[in-house]
Design brief:
By secondary structure, this protein is an alpha+beta fold. The protein is 40% helix and 14% strand. The protein has 14 helices and 9 strands. A 5-stranded antiparallel β-sheet has the order 2-1-9-8-5, with helices on both faces. The chain has a two-stranded antiparallel sheet with strand order 3-4.
Length: 388
């Protein structure tokens, strides 16, 4: 069971950072967290407003009661204020990293070096692994001829790994995306080596093109010695090659919403893509009350399935991040990153819904109003997405 260490309260007394405590950042703490003993990290309550303190307490109550290693950040976009729980640690992004590939592509659109109508072809040799709906088209036709605008849409709204990988190649590969992140000043957001290499390493393997077809990857992964798989899994959670902090992602989403990352047309296009995401309908989105809207992106990692039948294996990365919009137009970046957990999916849904509810309460607290009954979140926590 993941429990709140008593030493959090003692460490917090010495934390003098304006918006977030930084005390659990030592290597020892990181190893403790990856081993299943995280050190709680919260916003520094004495420096927050009354409504921010209430939000901080709500985040802590929801997150500290969850059996997993996670980080949460809520960014009030208009006020440029952030409240978080473990928000400055680096967590596995998984498909959240598609956000930065999209950013790099749209930066090039703004620069005039990429037209979304530019044609591109996907062939069998371009296929990757895991969730890639476009694979059916490629295998049926031998090749799929489309354009980069379509790939961008598929990568964000369907979380298609092959579409994203082709877009990644067009923007200069991982270095191109890292340059885009740096140019935008996004801070603690890393971009890994790409889906093929990262997912293979996470399973204790090296990439092989045969993994793109059938169940080959899963068959080979099953043959990896359990100790080797666990070592690779633990190493990834401890120091994820695609790691990002919830605070940094929340800030990036806020900058996107305010039009500070892209030109107006590309900003609008990016936000429209997020509003039409199909994956994770019952993650953050499932907790959004009537009259509110969310544009979001999910990220889902591998399960360490070296467990007896009937036992849930730990999962490295189970995320959802988005821009939550109130009926009056107020916007909040909401980031939930579960770095490691083995709890059933419905409990993960409950956590995300609780985070959304806490944000809604904060919105009305800040306005000095009670939360309307019709704004209370739904309670259905069944998993309906099956996508990453």
């Amino acid at each position: 069971m993941w429990r709140r260490p008593v030493r959090w309260a003692l460490a917090a007394l010495g934390c003098m950072v304006l918006t977030a405590c930084d005390f659990p950042g030592t290597q020892g703490d990181q190893e403790q967290a990856a081993a299943g003993e995280p050190v709680a990290e919260r916003s520094y309550a004495p420096m927050l407003s009354a409504e921010e303190r209430a939000l901080d307490n709500a985040l802590f109550a929801a997150a500290n009661g969850f059996d997993g290693y996670l980080g949460v950040a809520i960014h009030d976009i208009a006020r440029d204020r952030t409240v978080h729980y473990n928000g400055e640690r680096l967590f596995p992004q998984q498909s959240l990293s598609k956000l930065w590939v999209a950013l790099a592509a749209l930066q090039k659109v703004d620069e005039g070096t990429l037209e979304l109508a530019e044609p591109v072809s996907i062939r069998r040799s371009d296929l990757t692994l895991f969730h890639q709906p476009v694979r059916k088209i490629v295998l049926a036709r031998g090749a799929f001829h489309t354009d980069y605008g379509d790939l961008l849409r598929r990568a964000i709204t369907e979380s298609d790994n092959t579409a994203n990988d082709m877009l990644l190649k067009r923007v200069g590969g991982p270095p191109g995306v890292r340059n885009a992140i740096a140019a935008a000043g996004l801070g603690a957001i890393k971009f890994g080596p790409g889906e093929r290499e990262m997912q293979s390493a996470l399973a204790g393997l090296q990439w092989d093109p045969s993994y793109s077809f059938g169940k080959r990857f899963f068959e080979v992964r099953k043959a990896v010695p359990e100790a080797q798989r666990k070592e690779a899994f633990d190493a990834y959670v401890l120091d994820p090659v695609d790691g990002a902090s919830p605070v940094a992602i929340a800030d990036a989403l806020g900058k996107l919403a305010k039009g500070e990352l892209l030109e107006a047309p590309t900003t609008a296009h990016f936000l429209d893509l997020l509003a039409n995401v199909k994956s994770g309908p019952n993650r953050l989105k499932g907790g959004v009350p009537a009259g509110w809207l969310i544009g979001h992106k999910t990220g889902t990692g591998q399960v360490l399935d070296i467990v007896p039948p009937g036992v849930i294996g730990e999962q490295a990365g189970y995320n959802d991040v988005g821009i939550l919009t109130a009926p009056d137009g107020s916007r909040y970046a909401v980031v939930v990153m579960i770095g490691r957990t083995a709890v059933p999916v419905p409990q993960r849904m409950e956590l995300m819904h609780a985070i959304v509810a806490a944000t809604v309460h904060y919105h009305f607290d800040a306005k000095g109003q009670p939360v309307p009954v019709e704004m209370l979140p739904p309670t259905d926590t069944s998993e309906r997405d099956g996508a990453i």
